[in-house]
Write a structure and sequence with these properties.
Length: about 160
């Protein structure tokens, strides 16, 4: 059994409903959602001229491999109406693999842990809520340590 941490995000339409629908689809197609953070609202990161995002981190137990998980995520996003245009564009749903067990994966279409975890408060705050003492397998620091030293200054607040 594999333990994966996923970040869900949405800033188009009813974001709360989109996150709930994504969790339902993940539960049916990937594995059991065992824990979930609160919902957090944050300003858009990168391309800032767009609506705020609603984000949540979930922990899922799955039998799927990392590559099969990624392919299933892409299918869920597409099925929910995600259209990929430019990087950091507004989106109805975004699902990122943050961690896959304690593995370090470097493939052309999949990098795990997610390479920007340490630079994004909207990722670290919900991660810290769930697993503050978990060590990042590449950076060898806990989630709490990464949050303390995160350079991101965007306001992240509970929804």
């Amino acid at each position: 059994m594999n333990t994966i941490y996923l970040l869900l995000g949405s800033n188009i339409g009813n974001s709360k409903a989109s996150l709930a629908k994504a969790k339902m689809k993940i539960g049916k197609q990937i594995g059991t959602v065992t824990r979930q953070s609160d919902l957090y609202s944050t300003a858009a990161w990168g391309n800032i001229k767009q609506p705020d995002f609603l984000n949540q981190v979930i922990i899922v137990e799955t039998e799927l491999s990392a590559t099969d998980t990624m392919q299933t995520i892409l299918n869920i996003e597409e099925n929910m109406g995600r259209v990929r245009t430019v990087k950091n564009a507004p989106r109805i749903i975004d699902i990122d693999i943050l961690f896959f067990n304690k593995e370090i994966i470097a493939l052309p279409d999949l990098t795990v842990p997610h390479p920007q975890i340490q630079n994004r408060r909207f990722v670290l705050i919900p991660l810290n809520q769930l697993s503050p003492n978990m060590k990042h397998p590449g950076l060898k620091k806990t989630i709490h340590q990464l949050l303390i030293h995160c350079p991101d200054t965007l306001n992240v607040k509970k929804f």
